[in-house]
Amino acid sequence: MYPPMKLSLDELRLRTLGAADADLLVEATGEESAAALWGPRPAGPYSSTDARTALRAWDPESAGPVSFGVLRGSRLVAAVGLMPSGERVAELAYWVRPGQRRQGIGSRAVTAVTRWAHEPAGVRRVWLEINPDNEASLRLARRSGYRFEERLPRHCRCWTVDDPERDGWHDCLIWVHDLDAR
């Protein structure tokens, strides 16, 4: 279980999300046509049922994944997910609302959650999976202090169809932020 988080990023607030935040998620993903952050099948927009189900899976009281919302006023503009993948190791994922992209929100949130994951959460190694064609995510990883580690061929699912046997898969670049390597 990760400790709760509340941080200020100037005009933005970053805090742990829970099941009570389903309406925020529904509103935020309403204009999303691409994959979003939450749930076993990452896609938007979300219905109220989809949002509640997804946020329950990201329960901050469990030892599993936790989701952090980036809010401007009462509006969810981005989110960062931290998913444990071993002892003191976690994957980090991020999503920025379509109308809020290219404003530095993602890199500010990723940097803040990475710092928080290392201390006070005690995660030594945080890693990102990035599609090699996603130039914006590659820039974000560099700006946030991550370093390229390896390329995994056909590692990430495209989620264009529900059946994994018929779905497409793409290479994934692993970028890391490792306290032990510093």
Structural notes for this entry:
- The protein has one domain (6-181): Gcn5-related N-acetyltransferase (GNAT) (Aminopeptidase), CATH 3.40.630.30.
- The mean pLDDT is 85.
- The chain has four helices and eight strands, in the order E-E-H-H-E-E-E-H-E-H-E-E.
- Strands 1-2-3-4-5-6-8-7 form an eight-stranded mixed beta sheet, sandwiched between helices.
- It has helices spanning 22-29, 48-57, 105-118, 135-143; strands at 6-9, 12-16, 66-72, 75-86, 89-96, 125-130, 147-157, 169-178.
- Strand 1 and strand 2 form a beta hairpin.
- It has 182 residues and is an alpha+beta fold.
- The two termini are 26 Å apart.
- The protein is globular, with a radius of gyration of 16 Å.
Gist of the model:
The chain is α+β, with helices and mostly antiparallel strands and 182 residues long. It has helices at 22-29, 48-57, 105-118, 135-143, and strands spanning 6-9, 12-16, 66-72, 75-86, 89-96, 125-130, 147-157, 169-178. It has a single domain, classed as Gcn5-related N-acetyltransferase (GNAT) (Aminopeptidase, 3-Layer(aba) Sandwich), CATH 3.40.630.
